[in-house]
Amino acid sequence: MNFEKIQYIERKTGEIKTEKVMGEGALKFLYYNPFGKLALHTIVKRKFLSDWYGRKMSKPESKEKIKSFVEEMGIDMSEYKRPIEDYTSFNDFFYRELKDGARKIDYNENVVVSPADGKILAFENIKEVDTFYVKGSKFTLEEFFNDKDLAKKYEDGTCVIIRLAPADYHRFHFPTDGEISEVKKISGDYYSVSTHAIKTNFRIFCENKREYAILKTKKFGDIAMFDIGATMVGGIVQTYKANSFVKKGEEKGYFLFGGSTCILVFEKDKVIIDKDIIENTQNKIETRIYMGEKIGNEKD
User: Fold this and answer.
1) Fewer CB within 10 Å: N-end or C-end of the chain?
2) Which one from 173, 189, 192, 196 is the annotated catalytic residue?
């Protein structure tokens, strides 16, 4: 497989854009070079490396990286509560909070919204995932949930994947009102969730560290909300109260340093994902999405 730049569709304008990728040269080496793949499977995916880098990004001296990162990635700091100089470390900046009103949330009760900023793919039937990426990287719900009964419950359901790049807002929220369960943690590796990595092995989502909770809703059934760890992600922090009723747009948690992914799994026939997102996915291109933006509606 040849190395290609990551392109996506800016939903607001319909433009095709090229993503600015942090550490793109390293990703090219790790996923497209045989020696890089050897390092990936022996060292890079290991927890100790991500833990070490996470600690490094929490040290006071790491804040010196913030200004250049903001400039290189074109981050609009006017959206956030605190200016660059207020952050005590790069990690402190990484899970920065938005200003109130910085994201417009669609509160229509028949609408489900994106839980995060990022690039989205959606599959009306989760079995379509197997035909999307390279052969030999079979994705199974039983492995993903690590639970045979839940795999059966969500069989032929709809799957939405929101990929967060390092420059994105890294807090995640609830896509609709409902009652949220306790979190279930599944141990695993720390592969990158960059498009470069996923294109070569979609099974990363069955192999990486991940956490999920079930959001019980009136309109959309039981939504399984997954938060996926990745290379250099120092941790996943859940900020919600388990077994409580939550409102659409309320914060669920945040990722520490690194690119990460949120995945929503819906039961069969519970949601209709917006046509443009489905069509872009079928054309094998992601769509730029923002937290609170409509991604689908209730199925009649």
Assistant:
1) C
2) 173
114, 117, 168, 196: the active-site residue: 117
Q: How far is CA 180 from the centre of its chain?
A: 19
92 is catalytic: no
Annotated catalytic residue 173? yes
Alpha-carbon Rg for the chain in angstroms: 18
Query: C-alpha distances in angstroms, 198 versus 18, 63, 206, 240?
Result: 17, 30, 11, 29
- Residue by residue, DSSP assigns 30-69 as HHHSHHHHHHIIIIITSHHHHHHHHHHTTSGGGGGGHHHH
Ordered per-residue pLDDT tens for the chain, 300 residues: 444 678 899 998 999 998 876 544 433 333 333 433 333 333 333 443 444 455 677 889 989 989 998 998 899 999 999 999 999 998 899 999 999 999 999 999 999 999 999 999 999 998 887 666 554 456 788 888 889 999 999 999 999 999 898 889 999 999 999 999 999 988 765 544 444 444 544 555 545 678 999 999 999 999 999 998 765 445 789 999 999 999 999 999 998 876 588 999 999 999 999 999 999 999 989 999 999 999 999 987
3-state secondary structure of 232: coil
Task: Examine the residue annotation and report whether 78 is marked as an active-site residue of this protein.
Answer: no
Q: Which of 50, 114, 192, 260 is catalytic?
A: 260
